[in-house]
Structures are given as C-alpha cells and as structure tokens.
Amino acid sequence: MTETIGIVLAGGNSTRFGEDKAFFELEGRPMYRHSLDALVESGRCDRIAISTNARLKAHFNGHQTVVDHPEFQDQGPLGGLFALAEAFPGQRLLVVTCDVPYVSPSWLQILHDRAVEHKDAIIVTKEAERLHPLIAVYQGSDLSRTIRQLLEENRRSMRALFEKKEMIEVDAALHDIDNGTFMNINRKTDIH
Length: 192
Description:
By secondary structure, the chain is of the alpha/beta class. The protein has five helices and nine strands. The chain has helices spanning 31-42, 76-87, 105-117, 143-152, 158-164, and strands spanning 4-9, 25-26, 29-30, 47-52, 65-67, 92-97, 122-127, 130-138, 167-171.
C-alpha cells in the first residue's frame, strides 16, 4: 500500500541567510517546525521525515532524517529527492521546504488529494505564473531511477525532472489560498 511521507527539506547551506535557517527562531519555534507542523496538521501524512545533510542530521530532536546519498551529496534539491526516493521506494512524498513557514495545511491537503488521483504524476504548486517545485508531491515507481539518470548526466534542475515525468500544476488561485502561504524566506530581510 502506498503511504504518504511528509518531507521537510532542510539540507541547504543557508548562505544568503547567514546561519542555518532551519533552526532560526520564528514566532517561538525553529523555522523547520512550522513546515513540519503544517504537514502534521494536514492530516494526510502516514510518517514524516526531514531531508538534510550530515552536518545537521543530529539537530532535529529525534525526528527521522534522510541524508543525501553518498554518491550524490551537495547536488541540490534533486540530490535530496533522490535520497528520499531511495529511502521510501514507491511511496508518495509530500514535500515542503523549511523556509516556507506559512504554508497552509489545507494547501498540502489539496496537493495530496490531487496526487492520489494521479498516482504517477508529480504535483506542483503554481502561484500566479510561478511554480514552487519544492511545495509538491513526488511519486511514481520510477522516481528513483529517473532522478538517478538525471544526476548521472549532471542535469540537476527540477525542470529536467519535469521533462522526464508527467507534471501537473495545481493553481493556488483556483483554491482561494492566501499568497502569503508560499512566502519563501531566503534572507533575514524577508521576515516581516
């Protein structure tokens, strides 16, 4: 049976932020907790894991972590997705980054439910004309194999993955979702 694994991506180096943004206190909680809590509150996840790097692995208070595959370390989000697809073969990965602390649980429900309807497609958030490939659902029995091929070809962009697999855009404008839900915090000046 296919499970839904809620994933918080928290393995970046936070160079623009100036410190590890996953642990930056925002409204009394580390930033990664906001995304993790939204996944829990969505009610759609059978399990939750944090995708991170070896340096940060021990700092997530006992939550299950998945570290980049040794063959593809520091390969950006695609490298992280490969490690996740290997760790949870055949499962549905409901992914959100640690730096979108206002993502709404109801939006995660919408993405999940669309993924259930389209079992082999990647389901991606669309806001206005912008895609948010890291607020998405990744799934399909060939996910790991497809990503490995791209990484071996040194094609690390999310766009390259979308060219290989069916991708469905879910437009937030059609679901009355507040635009602030997708606010990405890259720098401390992005915090209001």
